[in-house]
Amino acid sequence: MTVKGRDVRLRTIGFLVLAALAIWFIAANTKSVTIRLWVPTVTLPLWSVLTVTLLVGMALGLLVAHRRARR
Q1: Which of 8, 12, 39, 62 is the most exposed place for a label (fewest CB within 10 A)?
Q2: d(Cα 30, Cα 48) in Å, to the nearest integer?
Q3: DSSP assignment of 8-56, as one string?
Q4: Do the beta carbons of residue 4 and residue 18 sit within 8 Å?
Q5: What is the pTM of this model?
């Protein structure tokens, strides 16, 4: 087993654990919340707000990782 192969496995396990925790956290929060966007106020289930936040965070993380890899 090489060090590089071990790093990939540890990253994969870490990603899966974090993904499972995020899904559990999102599923556990089902009540509706009121969110004020600059002008409008909307009422949504909290799980949908958390899901959108997770997806935006993942997209920004991938963008930053891609930009750093190009350097």
Answers
A1: 39
A2: 9
A3: HHHHHHHHHHHHHHHHHHHHH--SEEEEE-SS-EEEEEHHHHHHHHHHH
A4: no
A5: 0.72
Question: Whole-angstrom Cα distance, residue 62 to residue 22?
Answer: 17
Return the CA Rg of the chain: 17
Q: Take residue 38 and report the two structure tokens written for it.
A: 């600059």
> What residue type is 50 in one-letter code?
L
- Buried b / exposed e along 23-54 (16+ C-beta atoms within 10 A): eeebeeeeeeeeeeeeeeeeeeeebebbeeee
Residue 35: strand pairing partners: 42
